[in-house]
Amino acid sequence: MPPYIRAAVVVLAGSGLRIGELLGLKVADIDFKVGGIRVERQRLQSGKIGPPKTAKSWRTVPVGEVVTDALLGHLAARPATEWLFTMEEGEPLNYRRWKTEWNGARKALQAEENKAAGREGRKPVGLPHMVTHDLRHFYASALIAGGASVKQVQMVLGHASAVITLRIYAHLWPGEEDRTRSVMDAVLGGLRTGCGPVGRMTSETAGQTA
Length: 210
Prior knowledge:
- The protein is mainly alpha-helical.
- Helix content is about 50%, strand content about 5%.
- β3 and β4 form a beta hairpin.
- α6 crosses α7.
- It is globular.
């Protein structure tokens, strides 16, 4: 991605925002002190500003240092007082420009892969057809893999209900059988060595001392 919107990719991957919500962000929406992004509007494809897609009002998405550092670097290079992301001409970034840059970056990556394959004498690898919304799925998948609850994922993604969250991501949460296996492996893990004392956790869980 070109430097003037490179930080936007980091924000999308690290916050789960929809592209319209990102395009509607203002500098004042970023809380650098606590690490949060206030989402209260989105830029529609028509260019007009409206409320978030499904949330009733607004939400605050917690973000880590990687995202805030990327935004600080972005604002240092492109100082702004209103809209967070703007085009090189100074106008607010819109859907059309974003799509053009995104597709251009994908083509550039494929071209680099083709050149590398030619130099190394191998068949080029076809890069997956990745769309912007995949960054939102990446974010949700990472949260679930890290142990986030359905409610937490629903809130940060701005889904109207947990039903919607489960409809999309239920397959990523471990089932009850998986949890049972994980818990018992953690409790009985000390027995795998075949020797040595049983750990304190095992003794306490079993209610007796082996």
